Amino acid sequence: MAKQKSTARPRFSTRRKALLGLVAIALGVVGWLQYIGAAGISGMATKDMDWNADGSVSQQEIFQSFHSVSVKKTREGRRECSSYLWRADQRPIRLDCRTSMEVGK
Q1: Contact, 90 vs 69, CB < 8 A?
Q2: Model's pTM, two decimal places?
């Protein structure tokens, strides 16, 4: 009697392992950006990322919002403020404040 080779498929194919790895890397990057306070994921619109105040937003300024600009959010009662700073030396760039009309949390 000849033994048959077991041709069981692996649990995860190479393609699925690669996709799982990419998803894990993407989640790690987003988690790191949240941890360091990157302005790019703070919820601001792309049109507001004019860091040098020249009136137009370039791709470089959008990239800066992820690696060079940090945001610190504060809340005092109904007033919510976002302070944008250069990450290297903590120089302020801009301060945006809004007043919410909802009942305090």
Answers
A1: no
A2: 0.69
